[in-house]
UniProtKB/TrEMBL annotation:
SUPFAM superfamilies: Ribosome binding protein Y (YfiA homologue)
Entries under Pfam families matching the protein: Ribosom_S30AE_C, Ribosomal_S30AE
Entry's localization field: Cytoplasm
Keyword match Cell inner membrane: no
UniProt protein name: Ribosome hibernation promoting factor
Gene3D superfamilies, alphabetized: Ribosome hibernation promotion factor-like (3.30.160.100), Sigma 54 modulation/S30EA ribosomal protein, C-terminal domain (3.30.505.50)
Subunit relationships: Interacts with 100S ribosomes.
HAMAP family assigned to the protein according to its UniProt record, in alphabetical order: HPF
Keyword Cytoplasm: yes
PANTHER family registered for this protein in UniProt: 30S RIBOSOMAL PROTEIN
Organism whose genome encodes this protein: Paracoccus albicereus
Main location: cytoplasm
Length: 192
């Protein structure tokens, strides 16, 4: 497994790096036998140390957690405990996911754009009205998953929504966390 352990404007020593590798390996291997790589980034916000961790599993799923504390080791432990809790919650489904899926999750490349938030900066067009200004362009990876796996991936990544390709019909779908705490699923094909 590959590890990238770094600090934003702080030095991450060998002792902390070794501790992170050992503890994170133990956590990931307990629930998922095939993690491929992990990125752990430490930073500071005032008197708090922040730890942001992202682990990629060989199945194509991603697990992400964040932690903070007044000490750097405690910030990592808070992050690791959150990741452990997420993985424990989906332990059975992660193991079943490996058995049912013979190959890793497929990804489709898609364009992703950041638009200017201020309408005063938008360009004016004659027939089409106001057009937003694109301030950044990036590539996004859209996974091909079942609806259940998409909800699990959204939860594991700690994301408010996930755009995915439905493996049943190949159409683009969205799952999202609703304000009432439930999960919403948008399937344009079922609109009728």
């Amino acid at each position: 497994m590959r590890y990238t352990i770094s600090g934003k404007q702080l030095d991450v020593g060998d002792a902390l790096s070794t501790h992170v590798e050992t503890e994170l390996s133990e956590t990931l291997e307990k629930y998922s036998q095939r993690p491929t790589d992990a990125t752990v980034t430490f930073s500071r916000d005032g008197h708090l140390f922040l730890c942001d961790s992202v682990a990629h599993l060989s199945s194509g799923l991603t697990v992400q957690a964040k932690g903070s504390d007044t000490e750097i080791y405690a910030a990592f432990e808070a992050c690791r405990e959150k990741m452990d809790k997420q993985l424990r919650r989906y332990k059975r489904r992660l193991k079943d996911h490996h058995k049912d899926r013979s190959s890793p999750v497929e990804f489709m490349e898609a364009g992703m754009y950041v638009l200017a938030a201020d309408e005063d900066e938008w360009e004016s067009r004659d027939e089409t009205g106001l057009q937003p200004i694109i301030i950044a362009e990036m590539e996004a990876r859209v996974p091909t998953l079942s609806v259940g796996d998409a909800v699990m991936q959204m939860e594991l990544a700690g994301s408010p929504l996930l755009v995915f390709r439905n493996e049943k019909h190949g159409g683009v779908n969205v799952v999202h966390r609703r304000e009432d705490g439930n999960v919403g699923w948008i399937d344009p094909r079922s609109a009728g």
